[in-house]
Design a protein that fits this description.
By secondary structure, the chain is α/β, with parallel strands linked by helices. The protein is built from four helices and four strands. The longest helix is centred in the middle third of the chain and has 21 residues, at about 85-105.
Length: about 150
């Protein structure tokens, strides 16, 4: 029965607002609780892709593997808006999410949370962005890196 309870906990995880300092101890604590996942937030000062160089990403990946924890990534959501009517904001948002996807790929992540943003409720449907009228880069599949498009 205890083995079943331990397996059930592996379905759950924790999230962190810690940066790199103290993360390995936190991974160890999550593993000690019997949890299976740990979410990292891709935001400046936490796990921002531009602030986490490849050697650090490799070290993190090993730490997760060593403790049997599956990392997940919560993509940047501050100032991100794929639904923006402004093409410059939409394109910058897509570029930022692609950086988060590369970061996730480097960590061996299989699950990533994305908030697409929103457009004003008063916007006429005819002026909302659509794949047909938007730049193709902004509407590629968010999982395109799995097919080598990133």
């Amino acid at each position: 029965m205890e083995a079943d309870a331990g397996m059930m906990l592996k379905q759950f995880g924790a999230t962190t607002s810690l940066g790199l300092k103290g993360l390995e101890e936190f991974i160890e604590a999550v593993a000690g609780l019997g949890l299976g996942y740990l979410e990292l937030k891709c935001e400046p000062g936490l796990f921002y892709p531009r602030e986490t160089p490849p050697p650090e990403r490799a070290r993190l990946r090993r730490a997760f593997q060593d403790h049997g924890i599956s990392p997940t990534v919560h993509a940047s959501f501050y100032n991100i808006n794929l639904a923006s009517l402004n093409p410059l904001i939409r394109e910058a948002s897509a570029r930022q999410l692609r950086e988060c996807l590369r970061f996730a790929q480097d960590l061996g992540v299989e699950t990533m949370v994305i908030h697409p943003g929103s457009s004003p409720a008063t916007t006429p449907r005819s002026s909302s962005p659509s794949p047909e009228r938007a730049p193709s880069q902004a509407y590629k599949s968010p999982w395109s890196w799995r097919r080598g498009w990133a």
